[in-house]
Amino acid sequence: MCVECENPDRSGYLERLRDGVADRGWLVQGVESGGSYPPWAYTIGLSGYGLPELVVTGLPVPEAAGLLNDLAAHSLHDSPPSPGERVPLRSGMVIEAVPLAEPSAHLIFAVALYGSEIRALQLVHADSQGRFPWSADYRDGRGGQPVLGARHGD
């Protein structure tokens, strides 16, 4: 889980986040798996550029951070993926962008810095067979990647 998420006094952590975003443009906040919840991660700072924050669920935090950093850099130099857009990555992974229904429910520290009206896109990743979580046979029925919004057109 996220130690800082459980801390009632977040003021020092929020200040470190502000400084990190000012230095680097964005940061990635990882949340380790806990109980029935898989790991997930999200960006903090893209809102300051008028862009949606990016979220990944169901990947180990280091892998999610790499994906988020790559897509955040791309978003700043070009644009983020559009809702419903499928993007093949150099790694061989394919992602689809899904807008979050309630970003303020999931991106605690991005909301703390930018307000509850932030926007966010989940980078939903296909399994090794190219199947997405909305397919019954995703990961051979094992699941493990919650989708936090409705697909474009659903």
Secondary-structure-derived class:
alpha+beta
Percent of residues in β-strands? 15-25%
The rounded distance between the terminal residues' Cα atoms is 31 Å
Low-confidence stretches: none
Please tally the β strands and state the result: 6
Organism: Amycolatopsis camponoti
Pfam family, one: DUF4262
Protein name: DUF4262 domain-containing protein
InterPro entries: DUF4262
Entry keywords:
DUF4262; 6 strands; 6-stranded mixed β-sheet; 154 residues; DUF4262 domain-containing protein
Question: How is this structure best described in words?
Answer:
- Helices cover about 30% and strands about 20% of the residues.
- With about 150 residues, the protein is of the alpha+beta class.
- It has one domain.
- Strand 2 and strand 3 form a beta hairpin.
- The longest helix has 17 residues, at about 60-75.
- The mean pLDDT is about 90.
Summarize this structure briefly:
Helix content is 30%, strand content 19%. With 154 residues, the protein is α+β, with helices and mostly antiparallel strands. Strands 1-2-3-6-5-4 form a six-stranded mixed β-sheet, with helices on both faces.
Q: How does the SSE layout of this entry go?
A:
Elements: H1 3-6, H2 11-24, E1 27-31, E2 40-44, E3 53-57, H3 61-77, E4 86-88, E5 94-99, H4 103-106, H5 108-114, E6 120-125
Parallel strand pairs: 3-6
Antiparallel strand pairs: 1-2, 2-3, 4-5, 5-6
